[in-house]
């Protein structure tokens, strides 16, 4: 590692201004190897070589969601080099994403750069963040294949590279499920990434503006301003609540000409918030209906560009369609030849290891307990992912301290206590500073159920302290205060 | 107007939930007319009819920049209905745009929704904002042709409509000039709109991340991290300053692996900040060089996707190219059969009227004094546009009060004092809280020249109070404070 550092410094001191010296210094770096099988002009296959015995072991983390980021935050960078591979250079604070669509929060307030979660990634010589997708995995050789993400840049073609790992943590999350319904991917917007929220916001504001134009028919106006949310889980309910709140508070004022045309419909096949306590569910239904959300029980059969069709044949014209019906394993996870848990996730044991695959762990939505553990597959919740990341960070730190950090070196290490999940309760907000908090351990258990402003405030505050930096905590507080005083932002940029 | 209001209320009270009653109520509104020449299924040509004698006269404003927004802010909405036509629903606070590219400020802090500048637009029954481009003008009939802007929405095709005006204010600004150089529009990014700043930011951060990847050649790394700015006016200088500041403060910390590869080059054919006082120019040159910006004198001949070529044959590879070499008249302004000022802008007299075209005014960058006025064409500055907007608002309010608001009614009205421009000085920031302020009336005059932090602070504070709402003033202050404490934001969303 020190060699690498020296070479960097060496190359730096020799580098000259570009325009006076167009011949760049080509430095060969021991760590960055070039695959010699391809022709020199197409040399795009390189990577990070295996670490040597006197170097720090390398933990490679695939993904930058709750699980991966909490893990990286907790890893001891005195013990390990950390390499993160993800198509996204920030973590999304998902519980607050719905609020950004309507301008309650800024987009950046809910995105935390990985370099701020684990500073070593941007500073330490052997730690990196790679903006790339993982495309393959060789458990025998301890390597992963990656391909760079270059969208938005037409001058660079994506290229492939290989990374050797000592420990591999798969934390790639899950994918929004469409249940094979045609047209969902083409016409609906999911609510999982910041760019989804941006798309929803742009579309909502454009629809509002278009519907004010002369020459638009009444029918078209009603269609453009009909916002349909499919899926009555916490995300769908929260988004519906924020949206109707936005309509009640801001649209009435700012788009007075069309305020009576805008409507929100929430479509759910069963019950909304089905995992919540009965009394909370009734409270949510009452509150949503009161704030103008139409709750419709139905199953979507087909999605067209301007309408969706339910199984009973009802046609529902829409201007904005948000899809949040849960998640399932991604194609990459499906393709892995690992043991699988019920539901097709990567199968793990009590220590979050993938059994029979040395040095590979899986956490978060992409993983599930194997049937052999006799434990239930945990729900796809931020809470679970966060707890698993935290646990695995301690476990890896322990292994590292005991000298088992390098590949195939942890056979004789005592792993200690297995991971135990204790459900702290579920929460869903339903617009205007109201929230449901269900503190029961499971659907069958008895326990405390809270609703209203206090629960909203306590829960949010508690959650904010988990991963988010002080900068963003500060911004979120400022955003809330500003929205409270001045109303939401409605510029479409 | 009251009829219109009644009809709106009428239609509202009858509207029913969408899903229970799919037959929408079609209300014919007196104000929104439908062109009967097209077939009913393609009814897309409609508009706002001429106002009647007992209705408020209608001021139509084309554009939502400094000139148009300052005008709308000042118009007395007791006297006039205001209709704004623009492809952008917000005003951009252009002096702060450069700061948003590197994360010093949030994008939304520099965008002010028009509905906040002139609340009547979103509330008053006869006032509207139309997200549309103006495509034609009939001075005889007092109408403008418009076409809706629907980008980002694939389910709606753009349509045309017509608006009748009593007074028309053309405030459409100017267009970035490329001097006919090939490849500028394809490969360079301008810095005039918020989406330009977003594009610059996304590209800069992507280049930084890509250059950290294994498998990238040294040459490619240097190219990706070479930021070239063409044009040494205030915008080019400010952006270079912000960028080098970002590199010195943030990239060194956050992208330690590549910090020695990133460079900023500013290319200018003549002198940077040529309109400024000599001593200020020297100070700027010294400060920029000190902070690592390479100043190159040269003329660009050709722009390719990965390099630009100067007239002396030098090839300059770049990863990011920002173009800010001044502005010229837009194709629409060129197409207007109006008298023109030197430089091809819409020719105006001392009262900002377009002579011989009744009820039409032009302000801001799209307008210039006719030679017959013996006045010089004013520079394309926010300051000029702002002052013209303010003046014209008072003039139109005076005309309205004197009963000349309707079309062809102001012949006997005394217009009062003509518009007089007093230059308050020019400013440019050059990174890290340093600014130049030139208080001379013109290039030849003598006067006060300030530099450093105090001038930066005073000037910014003064400017912020012009158009921006309290909400955004507050946000800008918070953004500055946060950047000061926590450093800039580096998430790529």
UniProtKB/TrEMBL annotation, chains A, B:
Ranges of residues in domain External alternative NADH-ubiquinone oxidoreductase-like C-terminal: 423-489
FAD/NAD(P)-binding domain segment(s): 58-389
Keyword Transit peptide: yes
GO molecular function: NADH dehydrogenase (quinone) (non-electrogenic) activity
GO cellular component: mitochondrial inner membrane; peroxisome
Keywords from the UniProt entry: FAD, Flavoprotein, Membrane, Mitochondrion, Mitochondrion inner membrane, NAD, NADP, Oxidoreductase, Peroxisome, Transit peptide
Topology term for the membrane: Peripheral membrane protein
Location(s) in or outside the cell: Mitochondrion inner membrane; Peroxisome
Pfam families registered for this protein in UniProt: NDH2_C (PF22366), Pyr_redox_2 (PF07992)
EC number annotated for this UniProt entry: 1.6.5.9
Main location: mitochondrion
Names of the cofactor(s): FAD
Reactions this protein catalyses: a ubiquinone + NADH + H(+) = a ubiquinol + NAD(+); a quinone + NADH + H(+) = a quinol + NAD(+)
Job of this protein: Alternative NADH-ubiquinone oxidoreductase which catalyzes the oxidation of mitochondrial NADH does not translocate protons across the inner mitochondrial membrane.
Family named by the database record: Belongs to the NADH dehydrogenase family.
Protein name (database record): NADH:ubiquinone reductase (non-electrogenic)
Organism field: Dovyalis caffra
Organism phylogeny: Eukaryota, Viridiplantae, Streptophyta, Embryophyta, Tracheophyta
